[in-house]
Amino acid sequence: MCSLGGITLELIECLEKRCSVRDFTKEDVPDDILMGALWAANLAPSAGNQQSRDFIIVRDADIRYHLAKAAHDQHFLSEAPVLIVCCANMDRIIMYGSRGRELYCLQDVAAAIENMLLYVTCKGYGSCWVGAMDEKRVAKILLLPPHVRPVAIIAIGRARRSCSKPPRVEIERLVHWEKW
Known about the structure:
Layout: E1 2-4, E2 7-9, H1 11-17, H2 31-42, E3 53-58, H3 61-70, H4 76-79, E4 82-89, H5 97-122, E5 126-130, H6 135-141, E6 148-157, H7 171-174
Antiparallel strand pairs: 1-2, 3-4, 4-6, 5-6
Helix pairs in contact: 2-5, 3-6
Protein backbone atom coordinates (compact mmCIF):
# COMPACT_ATOMS: atom_id res chain seq x y z
CA MET A 1 0.00 0.00 0.00
CA CYS A 2 1.22 3.47 -0.86
CA SER A 3 0.51 5.85 2.05
CA LEU A 4 1.65 9.37 1.30
CA GLY A 5 0.65 12.23 3.59
CA GLY A 6 -3.00 11.35 4.04
CA ILE A 7 -3.57 9.91 0.57
CA THR A 8 -3.66 6.13 0.59
CA LEU A 9 -3.90 4.23 -2.66
CA GLU A 10 -3.06 0.68 -3.46
CA LEU A 11 0.19 0.54 -5.39
CA ILE A 12 -1.69 -1.19 -8.17
CA GLU A 13 -4.06 1.79 -8.43
CA CYS A 14 -1.12 4.20 -8.71
CA LEU A 15 0.43 2.08 -11.44
CA GLU A 16 -2.83 1.83 -13.36
CA LYS A 17 -3.72 5.51 -12.94
CA ARG A 18 -0.38 6.95 -14.11
CA CYS A 19 -0.46 8.20 -17.68
CA SER A 20 1.24 10.87 -19.76
CA VAL A 21 -0.50 14.22 -19.31
CA ARG A 22 0.11 16.89 -21.93
CA ASP A 23 -2.61 19.38 -21.00
CA PHE A 24 -2.29 21.09 -17.64
CA THR A 25 -4.25 23.70 -15.71
CA LYS A 26 -2.45 26.88 -14.64
CA GLU A 27 -2.58 25.78 -10.98
CA ASP A 28 0.86 25.89 -9.41
CA VAL A 29 2.45 22.77 -7.95
CA PRO A 30 3.29 23.38 -4.28
CA ASP A 31 6.87 22.97 -3.08
CA ASP A 32 5.89 20.12 -0.76
CA ILE A 33 4.67 18.09 -3.75
CA LEU A 34 7.90 18.78 -5.64
CA MET A 35 10.05 17.94 -2.63
CA GLY A 36 8.01 14.78 -2.08
CA ALA A 37 8.58 13.79 -5.70
CA LEU A 38 12.31 14.36 -5.27
CA TRP A 39 12.26 12.41 -2.01
CA ALA A 40 10.65 9.51 -3.89
CA ALA A 41 13.22 9.86 -6.69
CA ASN A 42 16.02 9.70 -4.15
CA LEU A 43 14.70 6.38 -2.83
CA ALA A 44 15.20 4.72 -6.22
CA PRO A 45 17.91 2.10 -6.62
CA SER A 46 21.19 3.11 -8.20
CA ALA A 47 24.29 1.32 -9.42
CA GLY A 48 26.62 0.80 -6.48
CA ASN A 49 24.49 3.34 -4.57
CA GLN A 50 26.41 6.06 -6.43
CA GLN A 51 23.17 8.04 -6.99
CA SER A 52 24.45 9.58 -10.20
CA ARG A 53 21.46 11.86 -10.74
CA ASP A 54 20.63 15.52 -10.27
CA PHE A 55 17.38 17.42 -10.73
CA ILE A 56 16.67 20.97 -11.84
CA ILE A 57 13.27 22.42 -10.98
CA VAL A 58 12.11 24.95 -13.55
CA ARG A 59 9.16 27.28 -12.93
CA ASP A 60 10.38 30.28 -14.94
CA ALA A 61 8.16 30.72 -18.03
CA ASP A 62 11.01 31.86 -20.27
CA ILE A 63 13.18 28.86 -19.40
CA ARG A 64 10.21 26.49 -19.86
CA TYR A 65 9.60 28.05 -23.28
CA HIS A 66 13.22 27.49 -24.35
CA LEU A 67 13.20 23.93 -22.99
CA ALA A 68 10.03 23.22 -24.98
CA LYS A 69 11.78 24.50 -28.11
CA ALA A 70 14.84 22.35 -27.33
CA ALA A 71 12.51 19.37 -26.89
CA HIS A 72 11.59 19.55 -30.58
CA ASP A 73 8.83 22.12 -30.08
CA GLN A 74 6.79 20.13 -27.59
CA HIS A 75 4.73 23.19 -26.70
CA PHE A 76 2.92 21.59 -23.77
CA LEU A 77 6.19 21.77 -21.80
CA SER A 78 5.99 25.55 -21.78
CA GLU A 79 2.39 25.34 -20.51
CA ALA A 80 3.09 22.98 -17.59
CA PRO A 81 3.44 24.91 -14.33
CA VAL A 82 6.70 23.17 -13.46
CA LEU A 83 9.33 21.05 -15.15
CA ILE A 84 11.92 18.85 -13.52
CA VAL A 85 14.94 18.26 -15.71
CA CYS A 86 16.49 14.96 -14.70
CA CYS A 87 20.21 14.70 -15.30
CA ALA A 88 22.90 12.05 -15.12
CA ASN A 89 25.94 13.16 -13.13
CA MET A 90 28.85 11.24 -14.61
CA ASP A 91 31.28 12.35 -11.91
CA ARG A 92 29.34 10.19 -9.45
CA ILE A 93 29.65 7.02 -11.52
CA ILE A 94 33.38 7.13 -12.31
CA MET A 95 34.08 3.88 -10.44
CA TYR A 96 32.26 1.97 -13.22
CA GLY A 97 34.20 3.48 -16.13
CA SER A 98 32.60 3.77 -19.54
CA ARG A 99 29.75 1.37 -18.70
CA GLY A 100 28.84 3.61 -15.79
CA ARG A 101 28.87 6.74 -17.96
CA GLU A 102 27.03 5.13 -20.90
CA LEU A 103 24.48 2.98 -19.09
CA TYR A 104 24.37 2.89 -15.29
CA CYS A 105 23.85 6.63 -14.83
CA LEU A 106 20.92 6.49 -17.30
CA GLN A 107 19.42 3.57 -15.39
CA ASP A 108 19.81 5.53 -12.15
CA VAL A 109 17.93 8.48 -13.61
CA ALA A 110 15.20 6.28 -15.14
CA ALA A 111 14.53 4.50 -11.84
CA ALA A 112 14.31 7.85 -10.05
CA ILE A 113 11.91 9.21 -12.68
CA GLU A 114 9.48 6.32 -12.30
CA ASN A 115 9.38 6.84 -8.53
CA MET A 116 8.73 10.54 -9.12
CA LEU A 117 5.90 9.85 -11.57
CA LEU A 118 4.22 7.42 -9.20
CA TYR A 119 4.51 9.87 -6.30
CA VAL A 120 2.87 12.75 -8.15
CA THR A 121 0.16 10.40 -9.41
CA CYS A 122 -0.57 9.30 -5.84
CA LYS A 123 -0.83 12.98 -4.90
CA GLY A 124 -3.37 13.71 -7.62
CA TYR A 125 -1.10 15.43 -10.14
CA GLY A 126 -0.38 14.58 -13.74
CA SER A 127 3.01 14.22 -15.36
CA CYS A 128 4.73 13.49 -18.63
CA TRP A 129 8.20 12.04 -19.16
CA VAL A 130 9.87 13.60 -22.20
CA GLY A 131 13.12 12.14 -23.47
CA ALA A 132 13.13 13.64 -26.96
CA MET A 133 15.32 16.72 -26.79
CA ASP A 134 18.44 18.35 -28.14
CA GLU A 135 20.71 17.58 -25.19
CA LYS A 136 23.26 20.23 -26.11
CA ARG A 137 20.61 22.95 -26.25
CA VAL A 138 19.12 21.85 -22.93
CA ALA A 139 22.58 21.80 -21.35
CA LYS A 140 23.25 25.31 -22.65
CA ILE A 141 19.87 26.66 -21.46
CA LEU A 142 20.43 25.26 -17.96
CA LEU A 143 24.18 26.04 -17.80
CA LEU A 144 25.00 22.40 -17.09
CA PRO A 145 28.64 21.52 -16.42
CA PRO A 146 30.24 19.09 -18.92
CA HIS A 147 29.92 16.07 -16.60
CA VAL A 148 26.13 16.49 -16.30
CA ARG A 149 23.89 15.12 -19.06
CA PRO A 150 20.18 15.98 -19.38
CA VAL A 151 18.25 12.73 -19.72
CA ALA A 152 14.59 13.71 -19.43
CA ILE A 153 12.25 16.60 -18.84
CA ILE A 154 9.31 15.83 -16.56
CA ALA A 155 6.25 18.08 -16.80
CA ILE A 156 4.12 18.17 -13.65
CA GLY A 157 0.78 19.81 -12.93
CA ARG A 158 -2.93 19.29 -12.52
CA ALA A 159 -4.37 17.55 -15.55
CA ARG A 160 -6.96 19.63 -17.39
CA ARG A 161 -8.82 16.42 -18.26
CA SER A 162 -8.42 12.75 -17.55
CA CYS A 163 -6.09 10.80 -19.76
CA SER A 164 -6.05 7.19 -20.77
CA LYS A 165 -3.21 4.83 -21.39
CA PRO A 166 -2.64 3.53 -24.89
CA PRO A 167 -2.91 -0.24 -25.28
CA ARG A 168 -0.02 -2.26 -23.90
CA VAL A 169 1.67 -5.23 -25.52
CA GLU A 170 0.45 -8.46 -23.95
CA ILE A 171 2.83 -9.71 -21.29
CA GLU A 172 3.04 -13.09 -23.02
CA ARG A 173 4.69 -11.36 -26.00
CA LEU A 174 7.26 -9.65 -23.78
CA VAL A 175 8.33 -12.46 -21.48
CA HIS A 176 10.78 -15.22 -22.34
CA TRP A 177 11.47 -18.00 -19.85
CA GLU A 178 15.04 -19.16 -19.35
CA LYS A 179 16.17 -18.22 -22.89
CA TRP A 180 14.92 -16.15 -25.84
